[in-house]
Amino acid sequence: PFPEKIMVSILVTGANRGIGLGLVRQLVQEPSVSIVIATARNVDSAKDLKAINSPKLHLVPLEVVNEDSIAKAHAKVTEIVGANGLDFLVNNAGIFNKYKLNGEMDKAGLMEQFEVNTVAPILVVNKFHDLLKKAAGNKGSAQVANISSALGSIDFAPQMDGPPTTTIYSMSKAALNMLTRKLSLEWKADKIRATSFCPGWVKTDMGTEAAMLTLEESTIPLAKQIIGLKEENNGLYYRYNGETLP
């Protein structure tokens, strides 16, 4: 009998636009990747995502702040990947709410920033732990990639002292980076690794047209970095092009 083809699966949250959409476009073209699961809050209205023509692509509804939605997505992904488990989970969904520390504040907006950028990735990785562990058991490792930002680096904050509206966003990403580090330690025994990435300042809805990079300039190297991650990258923090961040 022929050996079974090694199926490599990757799930990307928030794939309807921006970095997530760009990553999915690149990942379906990667020969080593067999299954790309793209999630969006509303799959039906994700026109750009639905326009990607690939037999590898599976669209799954997922509202990352909703536990019921996460559970339903987990069940669906379990059907898709089966006994192979899930090799890569990319926590990409994020929002950017602008606040000045000496400006108008509202608690609901602050909580939303942390709910989407920090709490949601915890809920998602927690729910998908079993599928990652299954893949790691089969192949020796599985990988979580958290899409962070250089704005989340505490060491880097003085250099990133641009618009004063980034503080709350920066805090949410700094907390996400701590999740990466903690996952790399707590899930080491399960052979599940975690790494943070800054995709750069990209021309997206969030990054605006003023940004330095096109979507392709960020996501072509970023997709390759993610699927090429090794044990020595566990718990660390990189730019889209592989440079390390403090």
TrEMBL record:
<dbReference type="InterPro" id="IPR002347">
    <property type="entry name" value="SDR_fam"/>
</dbReference>
<dbReference type="GO" id="GO:0016491">
    <property type="term" value="F:oxidoreductase activity"/>
</dbReference>
<dbReference type="Pfam" id="PF00106">
    <property type="entry name" value="adh_short"/>
</dbReference>
<dbReference type="InterPro" id="IPR051468">
    <property type="entry name" value="Fungal_SecMetab_SDRs"/>
</dbReference>
<comment type="similarity">
    <text>Belongs to the short-chain dehydrogenases/reductases (SDR) family.</text>
</comment>
<dbReference type="GO" id="GO:0005737">
    <property type="term" value="C:cytoplasm"/>
</dbReference>
<protein>
    <recommendedName>
        <fullName>Dehydrogenase</fullName>
    </recommendedName>
</protein>
<dbReference type="InterPro" id="IPR036291">
    <property type="entry name" value="NAD(P)-bd_dom_sf"/>
</dbReference>
